[in-house]
Design brief:
Radius of gyration: 22 Å
Number of strands: 38
Shape: globular
Strand content: 25-35%
CATH architecture of the largest domain: 3 Solenoid
CATH class of the largest domain: Mainly Beta
CATH superfamily of the largest domain: Hexapeptide repeat proteins
Length: 428
């Protein structure tokens, strides 16, 4: 068999998180949908259908996958999976190849026969799959369709619990000065992880898993459900339940019900709550998010500058790739920050909408942040972690700079009379 993940026309509803990656690479619980499906069907051939501008980078990062390729002859049924589906159980494979799964009327997955696949056109793939699915026996796929960025955060705590149950393993730390509160069977610590003395692991509200290469310093408290991925470092932190800390992150201060996808640097004090932070974001010392309004009313988030009601009381910030915050940056409730934004201190609450490639400094918005400086900063940041900012990645961000120009212009127009507008200094 082969399986494919596909993006449909609603992928943009997950901006800014999905600007630089397919929606199925976003994390909820321990991992992304793509990694879950790989565990379900180990060793099988797989492919993806993504937005055109993501094709080169994705093919570079995943050389074993076919990308936007429908030319490969199909001799067996193939499984097509909606990249925004968050499953609660595995897809049936035996005797189910004439079945499609739906969630509240939205296609979650469908088995496609070779003769059906022969007529595919990439440009109209989601519509073709929907048509094929209506000819199948349909069932309730379970789970949910992730439609907006805050859906990932809202679902994270339960997904962490489900992922721990699926793993079916536990290994409590053996150090005598590590205090476990709750059932020690709800703790998994890799033998290759390092847990210093005087760490508290509290599983009374959910399990905790700590992967190989992770290091948790003394005087850290971790409350479940929580997952700390490989090679991440936790510095004297308070980590509340519902939190995922992805690979190679550096985390200190206080974190609550948030997802740090990978390579996030939040070394210093400061509160991060009910937020999603994309890779290569640096949060400076005392950078803090508000996740609750003083009147306890529901929160709206300005996605691409347009306020969208969440229906939730607790919502923090959604921060795109390679964005940076300087010391004492204060994010208002329900903020959206694009990619490669630079947030400088101002001693006041920041605008809730910070477009990609913009600077904020002392309440002033600059739409012409030097692109070449941003790209060089990304090269240097990635090199510090032994990674390369490849030519394909550079072209991706050059495309995003062009594609988000209209959002920056609208932000400048709306800012008139509310915050001042300045021009960034030209690169030296």
């Amino acid at each position: 068999m082969r399986w494919y993940l596909f993006e449909d026309r609603t992928a943009g509803r997950l901006h800014p998180l999905s600007l630089a990656r397919p929606v199925f690479e976003l994390v909820c619980g321990r991992e992304s949908l793509r990694r879950r499906v790989q565990r379900w069907f180990p060793g099988t051939e797989w492919g993806v259908f993504v937005r055109d501008y993501l094709q080169d980078v994705y093919a570079e990062e995943h050389p074993g996958a076919s990308v936007n390729d429908i030319r490969t002859p199909q001799t067996q049924a193939s499984l097509f999976i909606n990249g925004q589906w968050l499953p609660e159980h595995r897809i049936p494979s035996d005797g189910a190849q004439h079945v499609a799964g739906f969630v509240d009327g939205t296609l979650a997955w469908v088995w496609v026969q070779p003769d059906e696949a022969a007529a595919f056109e990439v440009d109209d793939l989601p519509q073709m799959l929907a048509t094929i699915a209506r000819s199948k026996h349909t069932i309730d796929a379970g789970g949910r369709i992730i439609d907006r960025p805050w859906d990932l955060v809202a679902a994270n705590a339960q997904q962490l619990i489900d992922d721990f149950s699926d793993e079916g393993v536990s290994q409590a730390p053996q150090q005598p000065h590590v205090q476990c509160l709750g059932d020690p069977r709800d703790v998994y610590v890799s033998p290759e992880a390092a847990i210093d003395p005087y760490v508290v692991l509290d599983t009374r509200h959910g399990p905790i898993s700590i992967s190989k290469g992770a290091h948790v310093q003394s005087f850290t408290r971790i409350e479940g459900p929580c997952h700390i991925a490989r090679e991440s470092q936790i510095f004297r932190a308070l980590i509340h339940g519902g939190t995922t800390i992805g690979p190679v992150c550096r985390v200190g201060g206080e974190v609550e019900e948030s997802i740090l996808q990978a390579f996030v640097n939040k070394y210093h004090e400061g509160f991060l709550g009910h937020s999603y932070v994309c890779p290569w974001v640096n949060l400076g010392a005392i950078s803090t998010t508000s996740d609750l309004k003083s009147d306890y009313s529901t929160v709206s988030v300005p996605l691409e500058g347009t306020p969208v009601e969440t229906g939730l009381i607790k919502v923090g910030s959604f921060i795109g790739d390679h964005s940076k915050t300087a010391i004492d940056s204060m994010f208002n409730t329900g903020s959206a920050v694009g990619v490669m934004a630079m947030v400088l201190p101002g001693g006041r609450l920041l605008p809730r909408h910070i477009p990609s490639f913009c600077n904020i400094s002392f309440g002033e918005l600059a739409s012409d942040s030097p692109l070449e400086v941003n790209l060089q900063t990304a090269r240097m940041a990635m090199a510090r972690r032994g990674c390369e900012f490849t030519p394909a990645a550079e072209e991706l961000f050059r495309f995003l700079h062009r594609a988000t120009a209209h959002e920056r212009q609208r932000a400048m127009e709306r800012a008139t009379g509310r915050i001042s507008i300045r021009s960034a200094a030209p690169p030296a």
